[in-house]
Amino acid sequence: MGEKIYMKKNPELSVGIINPKKTFWQKVIKQRQLVYMSLPLVIYIFIFKFVPLWGWTMAFQDYKPAKHFVDQNWVGFKWFAFLFKDKEFLLALRNTVCMSIISTILGFISAILIALLLNELKHIGLKRIVQTVSYLPHFLSWVIVTGLVSSVFSVEDGTVNNILSALGFIKSPILWLSQPKYFWWIVGWTYVWKEVGWNTIVYLGAMTAIDPSLYEAAEIDGAGRIQKMVHITLPGIRSTVIIMMIMSAGHILDANFEMPFFLQNGMIQDVAQTIDLYVLRYGFSSFNYALATAAGIFKNVVNIAFLLFANWIAKKSGEERLI
Amino acid sequence: MTDINTVRAEYADAKRRTMIGNNVFNILNFIILALLVVVTLYPFWNTVALSFNDGLDSLRGGIKFWPRIFTWQNYKAVFATGAIFNAFKVSVIRTILQTVLNVFLTCMLAYALSRKEYVIRRPLTAVLVVSMYVSAGLIPGYFLIRNLGLLNKFAVYIVPNLIDVFNFILVRTYINTLPDSFIESARIDGAGEFRIFVQIILPLIVPTIAMVALFVAVGAWNSWFDTYLFASGKVSLHSLQYVLMEFLQSSQNQSHSAADAGALAIAGANSASSMVTPVSIRAAITVVATVPILIVYPFMQKYFIVGITVGGVKE
What we know:
The complex is a heterodimer.
Chain A lengths: L1 H8 L5 H4 L5 H7 L1 H19 L27 H8 L1 H34 L3 H12 L6 H11 L6 H8 L13 H29 L3 H9 L4 H12 L1 H12 L8 H6 L5 H4 L2 H10 L4 H28 L7
Chain B lengths: L3 H48 L3 H5 L13 H8 L1 H31 L8 H13 L4 H10 L7 H4 L6 H12 L4 H8 L4 H12 L1 H17 L2 H7 L8 H13 L8 H14 L3 H34 L4
């Protein structure tokens, strides 16, 4: 009885109940308005995201833009083999991995640390000020941030050199941006500067979900602030940290693009070349599309492999996982 | 047997020690976070000071918090050349168009795919989710844009950026939390799906729209790489970030200066007459490129905290 009223009220929802033999296509026609609103957009995504995958075939050919697809000369894994013999590519691979690992690790530690400190800041007004300010650099472009970096680390009147010499640590300004040993760390700390505030959001969210009675119980047992942080807050955000780690594993070969791109110079060339720059150079300067595509495929496949691998490890060790 | 007074004294002592510990902790905590605020703000503050300081005077160094010789000259020089004014215009138009279209279409898609009764909901959603993890890479992507005939056209800023899948998930998650009764009653009144979306759903998801719009707008405003790849051949399509990028690169690396006649010319043409230097011009362009974000940011801030907690990290 109740169900019948329900059916009358909801012609859309009751389709299956009134006439179970209604075919798939009849349902689609009935829901055609939803189809109009979604299908063209999904096709659009398909064209922009999946159709270019066809271009991966270039990496297995001696690709000549003038020739038709069927006339291309297929060469198998020649370009991939070339990559692994190319000193420049191996250098770019090393630089990419090192930069991405340094940035990721510094990023995780700093974000968790700042989130812990913010969580302990009980004054709401102060907390809001710190949050507002620290989120801000996230919204600046890397072009602007790189410009700030090059002036902050500049030899002439750069802030870092000024402070260090005022404190008496250095006698003459350091050439921060022309010495290979500093470059990865500058990239890493700039990443921290730009994203640390933004990255705390997700951890602060996880911290608010921790049961307050845990803290009360610990207080009765005589735990101090630091002990509570280590034994309650940190374990409380553990699953969030693991999900974030899995997600960042999928970016192992995505080093920062802009900083190496803008700051590269002759003196730090050997540490500033990344896979992205390699692709850009071979694709758009030498027009070796096949080689550049092969390098791009390598990057994407490794990224996805690392994502799945990290996810698999998390699954094996009984942790929270992404997929 | 312990004397009750000793116990009391010990307890009071322990309590005092925790309080001292607490205070030390609070002070240290405050100092660290205050440092974070200063380190975050200073580089930008310094740039603003430089942008208002006389160009030649800046070369002497020592500009920290305030300009020494105040001048509007740097900004005048920046806007005197049509190039940067035009780039500013391109960036504004691009940002507004892309934000409006992208947010509307992403929300519409999210609404359609949030309907549980929609028979092809699952396969369509799967295509979208997988697309987040797949990237064909730079060269195939470039060929697609070229084959679509978008090179050196304004449309190259808009057409490839109509849907954002991550935002789609945020919006859909939010729509799913809305009670179905709104939609059902509208259907009884004979409203079509599009009308339900525009008249009922859109007003209900304003907080999420604000957050997503902020993300899209900032992304559009900050992008320079699509100009570099797809529209660098046409000066009238250069965006503000691209012009700033060219200028940065030329002042950073002298060997690149050939690629950047325009930006250096601003400094060059003006320096003889009106004391403008590359450093001060760079500071002024940086401020011009940042101020729109600083204006929008405080209004949007309250929304994105809410939105992100609702959306969550995990899909």
